[in-house]
Amino acid sequence: MRKLKKYYGFISFWLLDSLLLYLATVVYPAAYTLGTFRLSVFWAAVVAGFIWTVLVWFSKPIVAIVKLKVPDKMKTFFYLLANFVALWLVARMAPYSGFGVASFVWAFLLALVAIFVQYLMVKVIKF
């Protein structure tokens, strides 16, 4: 059980990101789409949420490998940018992820909502 504790943060973000994708599709169906002829809406949310979470989760180690310093004041902007890029990449892989977005503006707006909700989750759960 103790070994699994380090994965709670990733799994929590995965569930949250999948839920955000589903809610965005329900609230704004003209801007976001989930599902393909291979993936149902549920599985598209799970797969796209997983890919989104993996891309954001590994953005910090990639920045560390490149030796790019992100000041504390810029971390929110960094995660906003990471969420936006990850969402845009997931949307470009629509045949495989099952998630589509109408334009980069909608991807940016979803990234804004995501960074706020992710911040709240980090403060509540305290990873």
List its salient traits.
6 helices, mainly alpha, 127 residues
Can I get a quick summary?
The chain crosses the membrane at residues 7-31, 37-57, 77-95, 101-122. It contains six helices and two strands.
Describe the structure.
The mean pLDDT is 91. The protein has a two-stranded antiparallel ribbon. Helix 1 (8-27) crosses helix 2 and helix 2 packs across helix 4. The longest helix has 22 residues, at 104-125. The protein has one domain (3-125). With 127 residues, it is mainly alpha-helical. The protein is 70% helix and 5% strand. The protein is built from six helices and two strands, in the order αβααααβα.
Q: Which segments are poorly predicted (pLDDT under 50) over 5 or more consecutive residues?
A: none
Q: Main sheet, how many strands, which sense, barrel? A: 2 strands, antiparallel
Number of domains: 1
| Structure classification | mainly alpha
Mind telling me the C-alpha Rg?
A: 15 Å
What is the approximate shape? globular
Q: What amount of the residues lies in strands?
A: under 5%
**Spatial strand order of the main sheet:** 1-2
Distance linking N and C termini: 16 Å
Total helical segments: 6
Q: What's the helix-strand series? A: HEHHHHEH
Question: How many individual β-strands?
Answer: 2
Instruction: Give the fraction of residues assigned to helices.
Output: over 70%
**Mean pLDDT value:** 91
Helices, strands, pairings?
Blueprint: H1 8-27, E1 32-34, H2 41-57, H3 59-66, H4 75-92, H5 94-97, E2 99-101, H6 104-125
Antiparallel strand pairs: 1-2
